[in-house]
């Protein structure tokens, strides 16, 4: 599906979906020095894998309407035409557009008191993925890079930070800031496996091994005299590429049972959710996928009927499978956006940008189950209980998976805070 023609005219949304989501792509040099774990103990590696925490982010690009999803206000002049429906948790209701999600509410935690006070797409996205406000001259690693560094064992053969994009051809992201390219995302364009992971025709495995043995010898001789961060990055990139070639089947979602493809839905979002499940089960520490484009300045209600049906099916299957397979205890699932939509309905039957009272949905790890935390007033125009912002959320996400959000990364002898030191986690929420 192409980007909707009702989106606002911001620079992000004048681009095609492929370009908008592909802005993270960077050069293929992407990775800093670090061990690949070729000498690791299999017993230790298996123990690390079993204890490993994982994070999944579903980014509802454009600004999902909280009123057509997690915090409906039926019967009010801001509520729109849709009803709210009961869920599996008595007393919690969500939009009637999410009937299958309503049945798995016992696994979810709704954060209905989000107030980020930023209505710009790019700045809002930056805030929600880094936990900090965007400032000139400063860059911060996104959640995926932080999780890859803090959650993934150094011995892992698989990348720790994967972004599944609706379009594009793959590549490396530019989303790790001072953590270095080792923790940048590997992007799976439209959920396809990383490109160039098969040997060219006519090149035997024996020849390939000989080529890499020679490369390593030459590299080592050079590194002994001129070792730099750039040379280390090239070396790591080659070695990681080899590991990806050996593990390429992990990225092949076609190997999942046909019945699962049918359950999740034969659309891109369903396929991407199924791929995310496959990656988590293989030991990947962070996966981000997207559903877009929710920038519904026009025809908000017609759009949400279509998009919420896709999301409802894939998301509910994903959560149920994680729960049934015993993975929710070790996996944090986050459904976020850059902001919500206005309670006011404009003259194009649309909703505009609204960051002062909106919702995020989470599940798993240390978040409570079957809970609606925070509250907005009857018309959804302001938060009345449990207010939190991007900084509070970022601290809370990390704490929920066992990361000390008040700690620091040591980068070239400097201690840089993992999360915004002027903020803190949400009080009284985690179990």
Q: Which properties best describe this structure?
A:
11 helices, alpha/beta, 32% helix, two-stranded antiparallel sheet, single chain, Alkaline Phosphatase, subunit A
Describe the structure.
The chain is an alpha/beta fold. The protein has two domains: 12-26 and 54-193 and 256-417, Alkaline Phosphatase, subunit A, CATH 3.40.720; 196-251, no CATH class. Helix content is 32%, strand content 17%. A hairpin with a 2-residue loop joins strand 16 and strand 17. Helix 4 packs parallel to helix 11, helix 8 crosses helix 9 (268-282) and helix 9 runs parallel beside helix 10 (300-324).
Task: Indicate the topology.
Blueprint: H1 17-22, H2 42-51, E1 54-61, E2 84-86, E3 93-95, H3 99-102, E4 108-114, H4 121-130, H5 143-151, E5 161-165, E6 171-172, E7 186-189, H6 205-226, H7 229-246, H8 258-264, H9 268-282, E8 286-292, H10 300-324, E9 331-336, E10 340-341, E11 353-354, E12 358-364, E13 371-373, E14 375-376, E15 383-385, H11 390-400, E16 408-411, E17 414-417
Helix pairs in contact: 4-11, 8-9, 9-10
Q: Strand order across the biggest sheet?
A: 6-7-5-8-1-9-12-4-13
What is the element string, with H for helices and E for strands? HHEEEHEHHEEEHHHHEHEEEEEEEHEE
According to CATH, what is the class of the largest domain?
Alpha Beta
Runs in which pLDDT lies below 50 for 5 or more consecutive residues are 15-49
Question: What would you call the structural class?
Answer: alpha/beta
Total number of strands = 17
Radius of gyration: 22 Å
Work out the helix count: 11
What composes the largest sheet? Answer: 9 strands, mixed
Helix content: 25-40%
Total individual domains: 2
